[in-house]
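thought: fold this chain, then report.
action: predict
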Amino acid sequence: MVQITSVQIKKWKTWSDLIVTWITLIGTLTGAVYALFQYIDNTRADRAKETLKFVERFESDRMYASRQRVDAALQKLEGELINNYKKGEAVYSDCLNAGIKDSAISHDLDQIFDFYDQLQACSLSSLCDKDISLRFFGKYAFDLVGTIYPYMEQQQKQFGDAQYGSGIKFYFNKFKDQRKKQ
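observation:
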């Protein structure tokens, strides 16, 4: 028969306490890592939801009507703008600014610019997802700013507001950078 001494019991108890401590520590760390991943996933989902709210706003009747009026006015000016672009930047700018004034779309442009300013604020504060917002809104910003940048500069000078159109320019630049990488 094997006899167990008190020294052996103390050794087993020490080892047992050590093993329990390590198992508890590993369990706690595993739980913390799992909680962190859950938090990150939930944060991403919340940002995506906020971004999708902007998609809904962008597709709302009011914003859609503004975009349609802007697109129609610029399409109407397209031939004249192309001809004046060949004559130089100043002539192009004058033609564009007069065309926007004549077609009365400055309010629609302001509405679009305000939307992009709000979207930029949401993205930069990490309330919205930057990648998703760029996918949804980058191309429109790129196309619009590429055509009307002289108008934006003129408005900045007229109102003394260097931030006028900064949101849409932000998405213009991000989309342009993304295209360069591809």
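thought: worth noting. Residues 42 and 153 are 40 Å apart (CA to CA).
final: tokens above.
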